[in-house]
Design brief:
Length: 287
């Protein structure tokens, strides 16, 4: 399907080698096109619109961000029975960031804080048609029912301590609503969307969740990549108060549980990554 779409819509690239990247993403099937490009095809309705969003906004945001982000080249149209828009972007070299795989964890914490700080500081978009492509900020309380169901499921299976999970989750929900103005957020800021080169952060990927609102969802990176010491430095650099940190920890818990219950039984990579994320969120003692 990817070859047919390329050949019909972007024939100048149809001769290039096309090979799948594994593991792919949960939202997209991803191919490397030649040596310099990627092709991303949404897996379902939940990812529809992400290609248009990245194509519109990333060229505007990229010059103001301190780490590389994908450079969209083209947005493809639905065709041949494939129902969603898809994209071609520049390839970014690097390795997926992993806990324990950083050359200097303190430097990485500073780089992450600088990236998120730069993103948050950018002017808000106008309230026009392009704004509709952005993801809304979802209050944590809107995830309460599904999170409690996931806690019950993993607790019954003996995978995690349900009482401890519930305590962290309730503290996050009780931290209340944000009291600051809406700002830009990445929306899926975990280590799987961070690239490194020689152990140093080099790029941030996958802006399908890009939106405007409460940015604490981006604090998830603190529990997926950073150890306690660098995590504390990351928090201080961003100026996250107790309420924001509690909500961010709640985001780490709810997203980790969601991925764990959906994929861990069939995907060892997801099982390892989400177990680490949930365990770190549970054990967190960041001052």
């Amino acid at each position: 399907m990817a070859r047919r779409l390329l050949a019909s819509q972007f024939p100048r690239w149809a001769h290039l080698p096309l090979r799948p990247l594994r593991p792919g993403g949960s939202d997209h099937v991803i191919f490397r096109l030649g040596e310099a490009m990627t092709v991303r095809l949404p897996r379902g309705d939940w990812a529809a619109g992400q290609a248009q969003k990245e194509h519109l906004w990333l060229p505007r945001l990229a010059p103001h961000l301190p780490l590389a982000v994908p450079a969209p080249l083209e947005v493809g149209e639905p065709a041949f029975g494939y129902p969603w828009h898809w994209s071609v972007s520049r390839w970014l070299d690097g390795r997926t960031a992993a806990p324990g795989g950083l050359a200097d964890a303190a430097e990485a914490a500073a780089d992450l804080a600088a990236f998120l700080g730069a993103l948050r500081s950018l002017p808000l978009p106008p309230s026009d048609a392009s704004y509709a492509l952005l993801s809304p900020a979802v209050p944590l309380r809107d995830r309460d029912r599904t999170t409690r169901a996931a806690i019950a499921a993993v607790g019954a299976a003996g995978a995690f301590d349900a009482c401890a999970l519930t305590a962290v989750w309730e503290a996050a929900v009780e931290a209340g609503d944000p009291d600051g103005p809406p700002v830009w957020f990445h929306g899926d800021m975990h280590n799987g969307n961070i690239l490194t080169r020689a152990g140093q952060l080099s790029a941030v990927l996958d802006f399908g969740g890009l939106g405007v609102g409460d940015p604490v969802c981006d604090l998830v990176i603190a529990w997926t990549l950073l150890d306690p010491g660098p995590r504390a430095a990351f928090r201080e650099a961003l100026g996250a108060d107790d309420a924001a940190w509690a909500r961010g920890r709640g985001w780490a818990l709810t997203t980790g549980l969601s991925a764990y219950t959906a994929y861990a039984a069939t995907n060892p990579h997801v099982a390892r990554a989400t177990t680490h994320q949930i365990t770190e969120a549970l054990a967190d003692r960041t001052p």
